[in-house]
Hints:
Elements: H1 3-99, H2 104-112, E1 116-118, H3 129-134, H4 141-145, H5 148-157, E2 164-168, E3 173-177, E4 183-187, H6 190-221, H7 226-247, H8 253-267, H9 274-284
Antiparallel strand pairs: 1-4, 2-3, 3-4
Helix pairs in contact: 1-7, 5-8, 6-7
Amino acid sequence: MTxxxxxxxxxxxxGVEEGRLVGLKEQEAxxxxxxxxxxVKNDVISQKDTMLSGLQQELYVAKALLEEANxxxxxxxxxxxxxRDDYTKLVTQSQTHVREGSINYxxxxxxxxxxxxxxxxINLPPITQQHIQDNVQHLSLDHxxxxxxxYAQYALEYPLRGMVKCADFAxxxxxxxxxxxxxxxxxxxxxLRTKLFAxxxxxxxxxxxxxxxxxxxxxxxxxxxxxxxxxxxxxxxxQCCAVEKAAEGRNTLEMSDFVKxxxxxxxxxxxxxxxxxxxxxxxxx
Length: 285
């Protein structure tokens, strides 16, 4: 083979190798593009999975709240029926007693459930709206976590500390002084609890949202029972709604638990502690 033929063969071989190298580089570029595309698709799928998980959580909570609303509606219907029956009985009894010449008991029944002022001095400082508002800052996330017992603990330790007495545990009657210094008997503490919950309403919403975010963070770790966490989120939202209703002066089942906890807590405090508490309050002011 001549030198020229050798050069031609070498050139052909080199051209084939260069073509093969270009082909390999093109294949690598194609593979890299496919890898990038796969990564993008995986990211999209991951985002969709996250969105789907969030929607499933919201759906679970919404479903639970709807079921709770339906249950409360049924309870409200039942209470309305019972109230109508009680009213019918009361009218019948009233008519009977009127015929017998006595209507005093109906008057007593009418005022029994309303706050009344009495001509009796008690050794307690008056509860002012400013005093209630000044103590809102002490409502904590721990109080919210503990539910109605937590709210009762907050009330007993801060705005109501040394300022109220349980006059009748069976009837849940509280005795305290209002802003005018008059002694008030408040059955089921309806007047006072409305003021308390109205004052903490905004802070309670903030703390409840913080509590729910805390629960969702636990849910995202995957280390806690999903159903249990979601149920707790539902309860937190229901509890926030109950506080809002209480702030409007409406009766709820939760308020019975709150008032009971207040009365139990007050009964645990003896009269000998009251002067000491008043002295502490005076020092603070």
